[in-house]
Amino acid sequence: MSTTATGAPAAAEQDWAPDGTLLRMREVDMHFGNGVHAVDAVDLAVRRGEFVSLVGPSGCGKSTLLRIAAGLESRTGGSMHVSTDAIGYVFQDPTLLPWRTVLANVELCTQLQHVGKAERRRKALDAIDMVGLRGFEENYPSQLSGGMKMRASLARALTLDPELFLFDEPFGAIDEITRERLNGELLRIFRAQRFAGVFVTHSIAEAVFLSTRVVVMSARPGRVVGSFDVPFDGHREPALRADAAFARLTGEIGECLRDAA
Ligand SMILES: Nc1ncnc2c1ncn2[C@@H]1O[C@H](COP(=O)(O)OP(=O)(O)OP(=O)(O)O)[C@@H](O)[C@H]1O
Description:
Blueprint: E1 21-31, E2 37-47, E3 51-55, H1 62-70, E4 77-82, E5 87-90, H2 102-106, H3 108-112, H4 117-130, H5 146-158, E6 164-168, H6 176-193, E7 196-200, H7 204-210, E8 213-217, E9 224-229, H8 244-260
Parallel strand pairs: 3-7, 3-8, 5-6, 6-7
Antiparallel strand pairs: 1-2, 1-4, 8-9
Helix pairs in contact: 4-5, 7-8
The protein binds adenosine-5'-triphosphate.
């Protein structure tokens, strides 16, 4: 999917991302019809193999930006290029269908894409394996914990083999220990798949632990006010959170966030 500033398809730009940039926003603006100016001239570029977290005060337009990137919302200004159709989206709510088992929920997206039965079963079982839900295929959502529901939601998105993976605060409602475990598992999946990730969170520690870069947004209308490269290598262990360099970086980002609020 590649669009111009007016939203029209730009066929000539199909191969526009030779450097692996899968998402590029330039001066993206969002004015809602009710007069809310949510996003103000945001520049954001994310390459394959980059995991970028967005942090910012509540209501600064983080979810709006993700929705624009996914094509769920039309920006009112600026330009955007998304150079893949393989987009995964994980919402804050796991959005599982209560009458379907874990396996049937995870098969839903590929089923909607008319992927053949054997292939979608294989993809679903692979994804269930990847998120650590093996053995729970026949359970219904009501039989799962919050963390397990989120794993199922993640697995469903993984079946699409996303090249651009968008996460809207997926672990916000999950207890801290489970959240840390899920962070480790998401990092492992990212290392294996090397998609381009954009992750919205209110937790600076989560952003630093997961990301290659953390982008700080101002209060509404959201502008980018800071961008911090995360220097740690991909093999991050939970103990990293106690590291002095980790604390220094979260401190700097926190300061930027306080100035931006
Ligand atoms: N469809 C809409 N119509 C009108 N206003 C909207 C719409 N969607 C979001 N907004 C407004 O746009 C602003 C940004 O909302 P958004 O959900 O993007 O913020 P956020 O940074 O993700 O917030 P939070 O961190 O609390 O989840 C808010 O003031 C919100 O009320």
